[in-house]
Amino acid sequence: MNNKKSAMNGALASQIHRERVSLDHKLSVRALGVKAGISPDTLKRQLNNDRDMTMTQIAQLARALDLAPEELVRRAIENAGGMDALTADSEGVSEASGTNVTSITRGPMKPLTTEQIDETEKRAATNDPEMDTDEQFD
Prior knowledge:
Blueprint: H1 7-22, H2 29-36, H3 40-47, H4 55-64, H5 69-79, H6 83-87, H7 114-127
Helix pairs in contact: 1-5, 2-3, 2-4, 4-5
């Protein structure tokens, strides 16, 4: 099985690179990590598609790039060829196995409030064995 994470994460990583180098003052990965409040090492793993980004991290990165989070995601999906291209190999489910399988819903995404994103992150942190210790929630 491939070590790489989701196609969506790869699309986001590519889009973040495009945004980062299109700025008047090209932003290094380290500078972007600092500006977004994400460890540069964690960000490098995510941009290499070795680790998926969380919703909170996507929001932090978008804001550091002076974008709305939904605009960053929209551009990533568009530049990847659309949702159908991103989910072509997934047969409509996430990459997770066992009982942790989530159906992918089609259609417009509902905007989430900051509180909803934070709550999702807290739930994910308690169930995600890949989370680093320094990123765990109490």
